[in-house]
Design brief:
10 helices; binds 5'-O-[(R)-(carboxyoxy)(hydroxy)phosphoryl]adenosine; globular; binds zinc ion
Length: 330
Amino acid sequence: MKNIITLGIESSCDETSVAVVRNGREVLSNIINSQIPVHKQFGGVVPEIASRNHVEAISEVTKQAIEEAKIQYGDIDVVSCTYGPGLVGALLVGVSYAKALSFALNKPLVGVNHIHGHIAANYITHKELKPPFLCLVISGAHTHLVHIKTYTEFEILGRTKDDAIGEAYDKVARTIGLEYPGGPKIDKMAKEGEANINLPHTYFDNLDFSFSGIKTAVLNLNHKNPDVNKKDLCASFEKVTTDMLLNNTKKAIKKLNISKLALAGGVSANSYIREKFLQLEMLEKIKVYYPELSLCTDNAAMIAAAGYYNYKAGKLSDLTLNAIPNLKIN
Ligand code: KG4
Ligand code: ZN
């Protein structure tokens, strides 16, 4: 069988990334130009600054990805890019660049849903992983329990009704004086604290989530008592939010009667979450998969992996492809 070389482009938020992936699973290069140092001073991502930085970086990042993969432009079989969800101005940079490249090389263009990309990061780390499986997508903008039926068919079983879990991590971090993005810093501080502060859990009858209650509780608590032990607060926040994730995931495993669970998205880099979900392997007799740490947060290798499976399924785009900021999973 001929090798398929997919170029992936990711520009939905604050990472300009371009990758080259062989047959959807083997990463030949994955260049990530992070804008975090730029946005840090504003405490979060500034959309206009993000788009401008994507424009400035994308040509050089693409050149680096081609060089590191040791290929020529002519070796590319498929050009894929994130077209949503994300910041419209940021998405447009990657979409326009991918369209131009696809046109110039006369190679198929494949638009990729960013969430499908996060899920597909697992295919790179686990060469044997195939659908069907259950996936818990936890990122800065999303919290979804998804049934991955095939490589290109998805059903949402539950989602957050308000804040995404990563958003709650970042807001809590900001309140206690940690720099953006706060998730990794909370992860570190929680390790030195005790989960001894009472915080509210939110559960529903269905598989939906809510994180605004606990976020507000932490904000109020810190406001009323600025001397509260920050390490204990981080550990307590992490424990309660992880319990909420575990609770719904266990219900979904039963509902689907499924034996494979994957985690995906930036928050799946969290060490406490990884440890707790690994314990499910024993408890629920299932196999649990995570992307390797470097593939949890935004990167283009995951976009190329998802793009490859869209291409195989004949889901191609054309030059009318546009950025869709609120693109849904299905
Ligand atoms: O997937 P991602 O790069 O962007 C979105 O698609 O939203 O996720 C970024 C999110 C941020 O909220 C960041 O704080 C969080 O992932 N994050 C973490 C950790 N590493 C990144 N949250 C908790 N623990 C971590 N170790
Ligand atoms: Zn993401």
